[in-house]
């Protein structure tokens, strides 16, 4: 199982892509107004909130 990670996304981002560092197929997620979303494969959290230790998301 991939390690859990947290990625900080910019406020204006409405779509993220995750492949769990090549541990699962490329998957697109639409935030659709939500402030955060969790990848269903690797449990990576994409959030617009300030979370300690979050890496910056580069789309
Ligand atoms: Zn993922």
List keywords for this structure.
59 residues; four-stranded mixed β-sheet; two-stranded antiparallel sheet; globular; binds zinc ion
Notes on the structure:
The protein is mostly beta strands. The chain has one domain (1-43). The chain is built from no helices and six strands. The chain has a four-stranded mixed β-sheet with strand order 4-5-1-6, with no helix packed on it. The structure holds zinc ion (ZN). Residues 18, 20, 24, 39, 41-42, 44 line the site of zinc ion (ZN).
Mean pLDDT: 92
As for the number of domains, it is: 1
Task: Bin the strand percentage.
Answer: 25-35%
Question: Helix segment count?
Answer: 0
Largest sheet: 4 strands, mixed
* Helix content bin: under 10%
Using the alpha-carbon principal axes, give the shape. globular
What's the quick description here?
It contains no helices and 6 strands. It is an all-beta fold and 59 residues long.
Secondary-structure map with pairings?
Blueprint: E1 6-8, E2 15-18, E3 27-30, E4 36-38, E5 45-47, E6 55-56
Parallel strand pairs: 1-5, 1-6
Antiparallel strand pairs: 2-3, 4-5
Bound molecules: zinc ion (ZN).
């Amino acid at each position: 199982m991939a390690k859990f990670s947290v990625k900080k996304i910019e406020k204006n981002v409405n779509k993220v892509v995750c492949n769990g560092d090549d541990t699962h197929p490329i998957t697109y997620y639409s935030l659709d107004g939500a402030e955060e979303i969790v990848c269903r494969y690797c449990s990576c959290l994409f959030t617009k909130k300030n979370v300690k230790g979050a890496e910056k998301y580069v789309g």
